């Protein structure tokens, strides 16, 4: 309303000014001058009014745009957009490590050679034994250990995958299908991640299929007979345990030596293979890892503990797929420490306490 008043006022002033100017300019014929001035003033007024209307509309549109920006919380929307992009990135490259042994941050530790295992050799000599060989360093170690940590940290999610691979390699079955229709997103992510990395190393052939119509999801896995068989059928657990143990001792700033896949020979020429042998502050820790069939070996390890005079805190048998009650019963019966892979740091803490009390 206020805008219309000023518009009409401007038109009236312009018309009056032009009429007066025409009247004075043509003094010989003032009527003609006034008429021409009025026509020019009226025409200019119409043009002015149209210009003002267009300008007002543009101003209102501009003002509305500014208000929309102010009220739309653009910073919030940009933040939401960033979060969406980040979510999509994580979905493409899923982070699936859940760290069962949560008391330590794991970084990769290389393997000690037998030439550097001075304290281990001294302890073996005190038991009438000698070190023959141990794990030889390889360029592929870090890659295999990374996969082993991924499997070990998420074993409850990949147990059926690893069991299927073991069964396939030990039989004439060339492939198997893993039904993932009812699986959680985390399970699918970790299985596809593990399979992709194993495929990159040429250890398996892998294909994931999702049927959009039936919502059925499945993974086709075909393990290859290769140099990676030992890793697939159980060595991944040894590598996982080695990294967890050495990282725990590093974090505690405890002096240690550690060998994986050590072969020793006693004075009676008996050869013994040890998955992981550690010396912690001059005290031994003997570790065996079994992904299956632990019943066949537990009596043998119990006998070794007696031969080398090891307490349960110095002799571990780490077994997969074992209930807490089973672990407690086996520990009590065979006098060695039996537990699952997620209890490693708890066992190590007890061992450190035992060693410190023995000192």
Q: Looking at CATH, which topology of the largest domain would you report?
A: Trna Endonuclease, Chain: A, domain 1
Helix-strand topology string: HHHHEHHEHEEHEEEHEHEH
Tell how many strands the DSSP assignment holds.
9
Q: What is the SS-derived class?
A: alpha+beta
- Report on the biggest sheet: 6 strands, mixed
pLDDT < 50 runs, ≥5 residues: 68-94
Global mean pLDDT:
82
What is the correct CATH architecture of the largest domain?
A: 3-Layer(aba) Sandwich
How do the strands of the widest beta sheet line up side by side?
Answer: 1-5-6-7-8-9
What's the number of domains?
Answer: 3
CATH domain class of the largest domain: Alpha Beta
Termini separation? 97 Å
Strand residues, percent:
15-25%
The 3D shape can be described as: elongated
Count up the helices. 11
Roughly what percent helix? 40-55%
**Radius of gyration from CA coordinates:** 41 Å
Transmembrane segments: 5-26, 32-53
Domain Card1 endonuclease: 229-295
Pfam family, one: Card1_endonuc
Protein name: Card1 endonuclease domain-containing protein
If you had to describe this structure to a student in words, what would you say it looks like?
- With 359 residues, this protein is of the alpha+beta class.
- It folds into three domains: 2-71; 114-137 and 231-358, Trna Endonuclease, Chain: A, domain 1 (3-Layer(aba) Sandwich); 141-229, Ribosomal Protein S8, Chain: A, domain 1, CATH 3.30.1370.
- Helices cover 55% and strands 17% of the residues.
- It has a six-stranded mixed sheet with strand order 1-5-6-7-8-9, sandwiched between helices.
- Helix 6 (155-169) packs antiparallel against helix 8.
- The chain is elongated, with a radius of gyration of 41 Å.
- It holds the Pfam family Card1_endonuc.
- Residues 229-295 form the Card1 endonuclease domain.
């Amino acid at each position: 309303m206020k805008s219309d008043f000023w518009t009409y006022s401007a038109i009236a002033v312009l018309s009056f000014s032009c009429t007066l100017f025409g009247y004075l300019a043509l003094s010989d014929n003032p009527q003609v001058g006034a008429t021409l001035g009025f026509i020019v003033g009226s025409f200019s007024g119409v043009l002015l009014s149209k210009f003002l209307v267009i300008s007002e509309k543009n101003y209102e549109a501009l003002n509305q745009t500014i208000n929309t920006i102010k009220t739309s919380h653009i910073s919030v929307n940009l933040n939401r957009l960033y979060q969406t992009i980040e979510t999509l990135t994580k979905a493409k490259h899923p982070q699936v490590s859940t760290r069962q042994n949560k008391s330590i941050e794991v970084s990769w530790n290389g393997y000690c050679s037998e030439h550097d295992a001075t304290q281990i050799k001294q302890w073996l000599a005190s038991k009438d034994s000698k070190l023959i060989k141990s794990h030889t360093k390889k360029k592929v170690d870090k890659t295999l250990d990374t996969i082993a940590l991924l499997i070990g940290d998420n074993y409850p999610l990949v147990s059926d995958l690893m069991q299927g691979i073991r069964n396939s390699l030990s039989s004439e079955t060339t492939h198997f299908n893993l039904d993932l229709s009812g699986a959680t997103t985390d399970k699918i992510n970790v299985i596809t991640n593990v399979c992709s990395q194993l495929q990159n190393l040429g250890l398996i052939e892998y294909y994931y299929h999702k049927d959009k119509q039936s919502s059925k999801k499945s993974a086709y896995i075909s393990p290859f007979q290769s140099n990676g068989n030992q890793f697939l059928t159980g060595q991944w657990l040894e590598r996982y345990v080695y990294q967890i143990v050495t990282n725990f001792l590093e974090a505690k700033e405890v002096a240690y030596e550690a060998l994986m896949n050590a072969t020793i020979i006693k004075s009676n020429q008996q050869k013994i293979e040890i998955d992981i042998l550690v010396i912690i502050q001059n005290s031994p820790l003997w570790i065996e890892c079994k992904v299956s069939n632990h019943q066949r070996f537990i009596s043998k390890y119990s006998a070794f503990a007696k031969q080398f005079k090891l307490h349960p805190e110095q002799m571990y048998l780490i077994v997969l797929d074992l209930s807490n009650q089973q672990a407690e019963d086996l520990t009590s019966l065979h006098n060695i420490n039996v537990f699952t892979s997620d209890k490693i740091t708890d066992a190590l803490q007890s061992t450190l306490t035992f060693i410190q009390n023995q000192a």
